[in-house]
Amino acid sequence: MPYDDSVSPTPHRRPLFVAAALAAVCLSAAGCGGGGDSGGAQARPRQGSSATSVAPSVSPSKGAPAPGKASASPPSASPSKPTGGRASGPLSGKTVVIDPGHNPNNRLHTREISRQVDIGTTHKECDTTGTSTDSGYAEAQFTLDVSHRLRALLRAQGAKVILTYDNDRPYGPCVDERARIGNNAEADAVVSVHADGSAVGNRGFHVILPALVRGGAADTSKIVGPSRDLGTRIAGLFVRATGSAPSNYVGGNTGLDTRSDLGGLNLSTVPKVFIECGNMRDPKDAALLTSAGWRQKAAQGIADGISSYFNG
Q1: Which residue in 52, 141, 178, 198 is deepest, having the highest Cβ count within 10 Å?
Q2: Of residues 125, 139, 177, 276, which has the active-site annotation?
């Protein structure tokens, strides 16, 4: 679940028209039918550009804002950086920041992560512990595993990949620092990896897009369009790689949700999205999330979406 969201998503369920939802998301994600990536795109779509033709025809629903808690960042630590030479490939020259949601050790540092940070429009908790399956498989374990798999896939295509953390700090980083890592890297794309913690029966994935926000240190006006392009492509290709349907409880079956209450998006100056890969509290989704084979498919779907975004 989003690490700066202290409220679970609404349990309200919508009927899931699986075939229509898959078709809508796939068609909106140019390239869902397959095909190679040429690597000929520019380093990043011009900030401030409007959403491309891959935007879905159904407007994303907005999640309810979480209460305004937040906190001061823990001492900064250098983000994990790739070691050794990178392979040449279609993503050569691109920089991707992967943000594994939460930290497995946050549960041991509740006082530190409950401090407040400025997210531009309000203050919220530095971070949260995240959710888990009923069997105790933590979201933070899931996100780090998928992030490692995603890093390997992107590096194999020649991308420079930076993780916001790699199990190399006692807690955090706080949400404002996570945003700064992507900004300071001048990333061409940032993806924050999560899993949700909603009610049993709520199933599927959704990608969270930044809303248009201006206030304090937050100004998403230049990244709303490219972030929607990035998120739409990830959603469509996540369907193809994993076989999972878009969420039946968030986003009106589009697989997309737009939010204005997440510091990791509000403070970003580069294209960025979150992906909630499934609901850890639902037994059927949990069976997928705890499968190493499915996690590899999830990483592949995200990587395919990023490649499609770069290569148009």
Answers
A1: 178
A2: 276
